[in-house]
Amino acid sequence: MADEVQSILVIDDHPLMRKGILQLIAMAPDLRLAGEAGDGVSGLKMACQLLPDLILLDLNMHGLSGMDTLKALKAADLDARVIILTISDSEEDVVEALRLGADGYLLKDMEPEDVLHALQVAASGQIALSERVASILAAALRHENQAKSPVSIKLTEREQAILSLIATGYSNKLIARKLKITEGTVKVHVKHLLRKLDLSSRVEAAVWAIKNQDFSKGHFEG
């Protein structure tokens, strides 16, 4: 996965929380602090200036909310993975954040070493979800009608390969490298397979694929 040191921008309006995160980052030789911001507006500006590899974002902030900051970061089309770090484990927040394009969702009550490990997982290009959040997302998909049944889906061989890599936790950039295609081509395939699955985000697609892993091993139609 990632061989170089990954830079992180921390956006959180709690100074004590930021200090703790900075101490964690300092413990990891493969991570370095790009900058820190105490609000969404400043964080968005810094993200565009610093171009970090990772952005660690709180949801509950004064002024521009975490959700609105996430929307703005994604609209800016930055080549950065945005990881939510919040106290909220509500299904509504989890689902909304991931559908807005968050690349991970962590909870502030996690053990520090688990947060650090999750950041390193995210830095390597994989999806970072706390165990409780993964269960919440799986339950949300299970209770919704929008996720199609496996037997009704017809994915191409390339879409099947990409979905499998998404489920493994690969980012678009790593999928492109693995399949020897451009990142733009990967994005097009991801868009198509999400439409076929009636899902809104790659994280939902990963959960769907894991839930249907027996089917996905050989029953997609090309």
TrEMBL record:
Domain HTH luxR-type, first and last residues per copy: 146-213
The Response regulatory domain, residue ranges: 7-123
Database matches in PANTHER family: NITRATE_NITRITE RESPONSE REGULATOR PROTEIN NARL, TWO-COMPONENT RESPONSE REGULATOR
One function term, GO molecular function aspect: DNA binding
Organism: Candidatus Competibacter denitrificans Run_A_D11
GO biological process, one term: phosphorelay signal transduction system
Claim: DNA-binding is one of the keywords in the record: yes
Residue(s) carrying 4-aspartylphosphate: 58
Keywords: DNA-binding, Phosphoprotein
Source taxonomy: Bacteria, Pseudomonadati, Pseudomonadota, Gammaproteobacteria, Candidatus Competibacteraceae
Gene this chain is encoded by: narL
Pfam families: GerE, Response_reg
Name of the protein in its database record: Nitrate/nitrite response regulator protein
